[in-house]
């Protein structure tokens, strides 16, 4: 075998090792970014903006004093879902967040299986009128919703009833969190024309009327076990 052929063979044997090592390095770097850097990331704030989180019973017990010390100024707390479900941690979170000095707002997960009037009454029975709180929010998503898929007109009617009663009672316009899946099937964003709580991972919102930007769902915040949704609130006019 000539020296040139032997060198070529050795080079071919090294290629799998080089490719494997490169893939391993890329995988390690990706893991470092995903598990270490990304949860700590917070976007730069524009004038008047501030950081917040949104939570539910899923986060377990939260140390709100630690949350406040981690430069978190506001929170949206899940209160209710449908016509009869109350988040098990709502009352505790509502009181503790206030004691820690955070501005707080309550949100309701709107189900397609229950009349809007029943849902509004349930939400208002749990969330007492509080002039100092943030605007109440409604979470509109198909993921996690019931199996029913009513017509667009029926959903618009029930949602309008829900929003109308909550707004008249709280004397605040509602904030809308509208999942892309919900908007595709039930285009209510323009019909309702309210301020938006908009999810756009790591990138600033590309829609008008946003009041809250949900930056990501895997942030690390002191006082919260595991990951949590990180939000940014625009300067309120």
What do these coordinates show?
- This protein has seven helices and nine strands; from the N terminus they run H-E-H-E-E-H-E-H-E-H-E-H-H-E-E-E.
- It has two domains: 1-40; 46-233, Alpha-Beta Barrel (TIM Barrel), CATH 3.20.20.80.
- The protein has 237 residues and is an alpha/beta fold.
- Helix 4 packs parallel to helix 5 (152-170).
- The chain is 38% helix and 22% strand.
- Strands 1, 2, 3, 4, 5, 6, 7, 8 and 9 form a nine-stranded mixed beta sheet that branches.
- The chain starts with a helix and ends with a strand.
Helix content: 25-40%
Helix-strand topology string:
HEHEEHEHEHEHHEEE
* Biggest β-sheet strands, sense, barrel: 9 strands, mixed
CATH superfamily of the largest domain: Glycosidases
Number of helices: 7
Compile the SSE list and pairings:
Layout: H1 3-37, E1 50-55, H2 64-69, E2 74-81, E3 85-86, H3 90-99, E4 103-109, H4 116-126, E5 137-140, H5 152-170, E6 175-178, H6 180-185, H7 189-192, E7 196-199, E8 210-219, E9 228-233
Parallel strand pairs: 1-2, 2-4, 4-5, 5-6, 7-8
Antiparallel strand pairs: 1-9, 2-3, 8-9
Helix pairs in contact: 4-5
Briefly summarize what is shown.
It contains 7 helices and 9 strands; from the N terminus they run H-E-H-E-E-H-E-H-E-H-E-H-H-E-E-E.
